[in-house]
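Worked Example 4.2. Consider the chain below.
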Amino acid sequence: MATLLYRLGRWCFGRRGTVVAIWLLLLGVLGGAAAAFMGPTTDQFRMPGTESQQAMDSLQKDFPQATGASGTIVIVAPEGSKLSPGEVAPVVREAAAVDGVLSATDPFQSRSVSPDGRYALVQVQFEAEAPELTDAQRDAYMEVGQDIGGLRVEAGGEPAVSVPAMGSAEIIGVMVAAVVLLITFGSLVAAGMTLVNALIGVGVGMAGLYALTGAVQLSSTTPVLALMLGLAVGIDYSLFITSRYRQNLLDGMEAREAAGRAIGTAGSAVVFAGVTVVIALAGLSVVGIPFLTAMGLAAAATVAVAVLVALTLLPAVLAFAGRRVLPRGRRDAASAAGAKENFGYRWGRGVLKLRVPVLLIGILGLGALALPVTDMRLALPDAGTSAEESSQRQAYDLISEGFGPGFNGRLMTVVSGDTPAAAQGAARQTVQAIGSMDGVAAVAPPQFNEAGTTGLVAVIPETGPSDAATERLVHDIRDRVAGVPNADVALTGATAMGIDISERLADALPVYLLLVVGLSVLLLMLVFRSLLVPIKAALGFLLTVGATFGITTAVFQQGHLAGLVGVDTPGPLISFLPIILVGILFGLAMDYEVFLVSKMREDYVHGDTARQATVNGLGQNARVVTAAAIIMIAVFGGFVFAHDPIIKSIGFALAVGVFIDAFIVRMTLVPAVMSLLGRGAWWLPRWLDRAMPNLDVEGEKLRGDLAAPAREPEYSAR
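Applying the procedure from the previous section yields the following structure tokens:
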């Protein structure tokens, strides 16, 4: 692989104008396609095979009027006053006049007025489902009642859901990345070139993704996740290859040869690291959840583009930059005057000297951070976790104040019979059975379709949609109505669907985690031709995941230090966060593993002792890994400032996970374990060695023509 990439790097370097033109043309074409074909994203989640989804599909067929987007407009009178029908009527008329609205109920007729008469709810039913609503319809709905003086009117429900905006979070990450690159390289040209190269890759990937939204419906979180990951890995991959190119120049190589060897060696590691991320993200498809599959494939495609850009566009850009990627004071040097010992060497010697205490403290500390995982709960987001200033959050809080939290988590029981008589009889039994249960605040009279064969029974729980008691109630209701004769009875609604999705994801997480860990062992065995190194890497990954889950649970669910990250209301974690986190962190963890350990293996294969090779691996790559980790933390951490709770929690968890994996696991625990294993770290049975293909990630086949590099400072064990 190294030889093939070496030739690719030299070819792109020699045809720099053509390569740059091709990428810019591709960016322009995909950008135009995105502008022409971009479609809306959605905040709805489908889960085939669950009871709630089957019930919604049944409603879509037999009672389509009940499946359109539903909203709730809250009207509140001044404190100490009561609402009158005359005050509420203009709001109802204005809501009914919104384009696409089938009905807007008068709260005095539907008995949706609070006991004290101060709060009233106008139920608004749209004909189209939420993803199909236009911006004009949403805007008109949000403006209902805003011109009526003396009353407070807030719009909530599905039409009020806002799509996560992108802008400030990315800017913060890019700015920090620019500063880190400038400090790392000491050259404005190198820093700017690396950043622009990564941004072009992100632009191509995002333009292609948005062009597809016209034909494929994606969740609103999918583009943000793809952007977040594509930006981070794009900068990191360019950083790693550029660093190797600079070192090759300092070792006395001609520019084109330096670029070819950088692509052949560092590029091989980038290919492997990128492939692991792509496989892990694409592996989300095995869970069998459509919106999660779309998320994984979209993010994987963006990462794949970042790899291609690093292997082709970067050497072309390096050809334009030449030796200006070096600090000004070293551009005229024909070769490196000798390797200067840096912090990485000192850190490596310190870790090896204190390896036993380091391992104990590191493992026990990460284990302690993982303890909150035992209390982790998963749920889909509701308006109660939205930003406090948002209309949907205001409506949610007002409904809870006037009617109780359960009115925000309505459940829908779908009763289907072969005849109208059977459906009506079963509906009556359903109302009686559910109405007598603990935890149920109210049960509405059933509503039937025109044929009379399908009925809808609304159930109001006493607790909110993300409350554990509501989850138990959903299961209890399903058990209670299972015995209703002569009809099919199923429970659905946004709350029930969220519970079903969360449970399906929780069940899939251990399987996916096992798949990812097994994959890491196999891939690292191929790369490093070792049994113990892959096992060590997998165990380190489990420590990273456990500690990251624990910290995220402590902040977002338990509320510890929640104010520092702008969490207004702690609650369950987003149900797909753990499985997304496992997929992304796996790929990033393997990035750092390859970047560090490939140098250790390279030096060991070429004659260094196992301990010296360990120190060399840190000395040569600690600076690059540190810069890469800081950039990723900055990119992911920038999304903590987003208002959307999904994006905020994903950004926080990824930033924490990268910090733990890069600085604690890979740069501290890994060298400690490698020093304990010694030569045994590189042991592999002969039969297995012969059976496995040689990927040559370290570029051994290119070594023969390589000019003798400056020797690393020797490590002597004391």
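The mean pLDDT is 85. Residues 1-43+190-335 form a domain with the Multidrug efflux transporter AcrB transmembrane fold fold (CATH 1.20.1640.10). Compare this with Example 4.1 before moving on.
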